[in-house]
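FAQ: What does the model actually see?

It sees only this:
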Amino acid sequence: RPPARAPRPIGSAPWAPRCRRRRLAAGRLALELPGGGAPKATAAMASDWDRTLRRTSLTITAALAAGTAAAAAAVVWRRSRQRDEDAAGSSVLSVLRSGARGASRRTAIGSITWAEVAEHDRLDDAWVVISGEVYNVTPFLEEHPGGKLLLLAFAGRDATEPFETVGHSALAMRELRGLHIGELNTVAPWTHQGGGTLKGAAPLRRAELTGGRKAPDPDKVDPLWKVQSFGFLPARDPVGIEALFGTVFEPFAEFCELLPALGFTGKFRQKLDGDPQLQACMLRAGEPDALQGLTDDQIERAFCVVGYTMIAYWRGGTLAFSSGVVAADQGSQRQLEGGSCGIDDTKVVLPAFLSKPMLRLSEHLKRPPMIDYASTVLYNWARIDKNGPITMSNVRCVVRLTGLNDEEWFFKTHVIIESEAAHAISAVIAACAADNDDELLNQLMLLEEAMWRVVRACLPIMYERDETGTPKCSEHIFYQILRPLIKSGPLIFEGDSQNTSKDGGSDGAAAPAPRSLAGPSGAMSSLLPAIDAACGIQMTSEKLRDTLGKFELSMPAGHREFLAEMRGTMSIRKRILLSRPVGGEPSEQHEALVRSFNRVISRVLDFRWQHWSYVKNFVMKPGNISHAVGTGGTTFDFLQQHITDTEKARIRSSCDGFSRMHSEPPELPPIRLPPDSAYKRHRDAPQKEFWSVDGDHGLLARQPLVSPETAPFSRNLSPPMLEAFQAVWNLALRIPALCAARGPFYDAINAASGKLAAMQDDRAVAGLSEVAREHLMTTLTHIAAGCVATGHKKPPRCVEKPLQVVARSVGRPPHMDFAELVLNNWNVSEIACIDRDDSQEAEQAANGKEVGQRFRHQVVWRFLAMPDEEWYRATHIILHEEAREIVAAIRVGHVAMRDQNDIAAVSSMVRIGAWCNKFCDYFDAYFESKDSRTESVMVRRLEPFISHGGLHDLTSEETACWVYCMGSSVLLPALHAFFGVQMCPVMETDNPDVESLGATMRRTLQEARVFMPVPHREFIELLEKPGVSVRQYCFRRFGAKSVSVEVLHDLEAGYNDSLNTLVRFLSRRVHLVSRFFPPLAGTFGALNSDIEAAMQHSRLQLLKMRQRVFRSMQQ
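And it is asked to produce this:
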């Protein structure tokens, strides 16, 4: 029936004529809302109505069946307003619950727990949970159109996400309602008290801490440093300092809690030097029988305590301001100076009451007499809750040098890394002992997952901030305060008979020589050396081998023995190479091993790059130095060399398209396309459309922006119109000069109004060619922005009228956005020629350019004419031109998915991943070399131009979201749509600022659609159609019985690796926003963490799903 009161005509927006018919059809369907209101759609919803109506058709049917006509219209309106918010399945939930109320139930609502659901995971008894509702799908297994494998993979689990991803018809929804048996009493998965997820939870790969091992039995008799299921942490939790009470080391233990207060000021040295009785007590710890009767745990704790006491004596009072602040007279002025105790730590002789105990412990443990990685990290922690997990909140440092939280956070982070890496070491041991390729493949997958968790969940802990935005471990505090205390240096041990000087003392006796001591360093950890040995990563540099060999002397003896054993075993790499088939077609099993091994190498590289970022952030940047020395006393050149050696360990696959092995995308296998295929039509589109996404210039406009007299369309312009174009061009050139400090730009436009008379004819403007109208749109929006920036609400009539007409003709609002700011604001210029090879000349000749010429992109219109503005626009011009590779990969991927060509589908994902990595490196190079101090100023100067005069004035948060999303660019939405993930899903958070920023981000993304060029909008609508994402394709292929395990592995690896690169690319966007908007850096970082967590939530685990299916069928 017709509505009681028709809604406002949605198709009346002058900038969206193509959506008019679809919107009016939606308006005819909408019914009157409760309270007499009618649904009002904005222009930003125009491109979403078709999809909204399809998704809500079943909901409308259910509402009408209930006799509520107004509720149907409300559903349409609500779904169009909350498209981004409904990712969790609320659209399906309302239908399921409405149909389930009258269905027969096993028990009362809310009585089914996760524990009960988890018990039903077999072929003859399968339950699933969808949006909080429980269904018995056992009778439907054989009838499921996607195959029973997909249902069995989620038996006893939460299947909401794959159910929403694949999409289902109204018939399937009715069938599902008949299988309903009850409602879950909680939506959250059931978990252990220790944090581990039970099998009742959804099979997700999360970047979360596992909590490490449970507290072992303190009475275990295993060697303290035996490497087993808990990695390189000790076999038992470290004992406290109280374990030394009643031993000869008790005097050292009593001073532990005083070290931060006395050691820093230098008073600790004064106290020890002035107390002969205390010295005698300490000296007894250096006697030959001092260690008799002590356990390994007590000896290790004694080494830690004596080592920290030695550091406090050696380095105490050497820091600036460590002796307080004094007033110094300089003429008539008085100023404050910070002084030290006058101690030169390079000439210290450690007295016998400290040197002899330290040398005795060093000799027993066979480690240098210096605090090392084991004494500061591996054996310097204790659980707060003895039965709790190893997490940052449940672990504390036992011995400390300072009272700074930064020291605590720095060393505890490394404890967490070692704890979580225990899973990787267990996988390494099992992989080396595997007796068949299937077991080896499984252990490689576990090893990659464990290293991925270390990189994604552990290493970023170092950069966490508190609720005020302050770093929990400040790089400046580490560099200026903590690092000088634990750095390497020479030290003379009194009574050191094993290290004497050739010159001898004054009495002719041999005098002790200085020992060169290496401070604690991450290179003393056994984690990466063990993985290097297992994976066959060679060290090509002799200097690197010698450096790491010196660090290994500081490892516990048990760790050194383990490394020696690993190096004497055949490496995984060599084993895979020896199993390569001889002749014939390559084995799928072998190729799966190669790809899994290379993924492990990628995770090792990720770890090393993160370690390198530690060096840059905590040493090089605070010290403003390019060639630094670590706390271990060596330069960091070996890190770069080790990264290079790790890259060389990759195994070349017979089909490199399955894994990202190079920065450049691999050659894709040939795909046979039908003559009338969609890909061919899209490929030929650049000849027809100005904004085709398949053109040679990628997502940029088809033609550069040039002056009117040289533009090809000028031949078709009348003389008055050509004069008007030239006048507009000249006005835009004067924007930087006349808009500064609210200059006379508005008056200059009025003065030139006579030359713009030809543009006051609506028909003349609308009758221009597409290229002329787009160029006019870009120029006029810049002029209008200049008027607003000088304090005027809108431009003069002579500019506003043609702007309204041309905006209506191109299908976009009459305001500047990313298309005008970047995509259609470029030109090319020839630059000096350099030596070029034949392939580059051939490429130029193929593109119709003269051989020997080189071109670069330039920005045409500017507001500020400053380097930062130029850098921002030019960088994004290059980014969107190179996006043609993304579009081509998406097109090929769609054709491959249509033809079920798994190899080509994976290759398209790999190509996208390679592109993201290439531009991450591109941005990193600029971030590293470019000074960021002027960028925030540039943004504040640009805000009057880009944040005002649009649909509404933008706040700083909205502008920051606009920068992150690249405004109305289709690039990021297209990438997310292709992978089938949301760009900014609704997430629960306790931070109201993050929640508000997330809502702003979603609103920005929704409003950006209307500013997109029409072909770009059509492109994203195509990608968002049901069933076309690569995620949905992977689920469909999983349900096919003919798909092998190797193919599932390739799909899973290709998808997850590509998703990782997308996360990496998004992190560079956050970095850019943080540089532009420093006050929002903390909030944006927190929001990005939530977005990243949601992305990791979307990772596929097809092989684990297949394993669960096999177990269910066996049961």
